[in-house]
Amino acid sequence: MPAASAHALRRLAATALATTVLALAGCSSAGDSGGDPGSSNKDGDRPEVIQPGRPGESAKSVDPGSIEPSEEWNHTDVAYMQMMIPHHAQAVQMSRLARKHAANERVRTLAERIGAAQAPEIQAMAAWLEERNMEVPRAGEDPGKYDHGKHGHNSMMGMLTKAQIKRLAAARGAEFDRLFLNGMIRHHRGAVEMSQQAARGGSDVIVGEMTADVNATQSAEIDRMRNLLAEL
């Protein structure tokens, strides 16, 4: 996504956040006169809201008037982008093997679509990280380096081991098709789970759009691969 477009989306997200906060504050002061006084902040007239922290920072309770619109991304967003680059790269690697070794034409077609979709997404993720001065993983980098578990995030899910990739690369024909479909189903399930977690904890508009797209697209592809596997 071009920088200008990303900047526009960030401004839109900040405006929407500010509008929502003000609306909630107004509703609270006008309609909660009989509510629990302990639910308001120390001033007694506006509720506190949770503002996500930036990488390495915890979320905090703040007064709506102190919300910083520019802080629209947090560690969950960064963790997702950094982990999904090597994750997508492995899917692209598997798809390239399918072009050479798959016997079933529909398996080859599906693999081509997966590779064609995920390769540009890697570039988009890298651009997002670079714009925020965050480290960009290399495609073949050890996934363990970007395990954000110490910040409460799960590590990458669904990744094939080196031994599994080696076995897939050595397979041919129908054996390859079965290994590819089983491996990619596992891989997609991991991506869907990671995307759902990021959608719950992230705050960036662009990352949110990407998690929704990965969730929808790869869930549909899982169904196709299951059907293909049953027909082999």
As for the number of domains, it is 2
Major beta sheet, specifics? Answer: 2 strands, antiparallel
Q: Assign the CATH architecture of the largest domain.
A: Up-down Bundle
Q: Please name the CATH topology of the largest domain.
A: Ferritin
What Rg, in angstroms, do the CA atoms define?
A: 22 Å
The structure class reads mainly alpha
Q: Span between N and C termini?
A: 39 Å
Average of pLDDT: 77
Give the uncertain stretches in residue-range form: 1-44, 49-55
CATH superfamily of the largest domain: Ferritin, core subunit, four-helix bundle
What percent of residues are in strands?
A: under 5%
Q: Could you give the order of the helices and strands?
A: HEEHHHHH
Cross-sheet strand order for the largest sheet: 1-2
3D shape: elongated
Count the E strands: 2
Helix content: 55-70%
Short description:
With 232 residues, the protein is mostly helical. Helices cover 64% and strands 3% of the residues.
Map the helices and strands:
Layout: H1 3-31, E1 49-51, E2 60-62, H2 75-101, H3 105-131, H4 162-170, H5 173-201, H6 205-231
Antiparallel strand pairs: 1-2
Helix pairs in contact: 2-3, 2-5, 4-5, 5-6
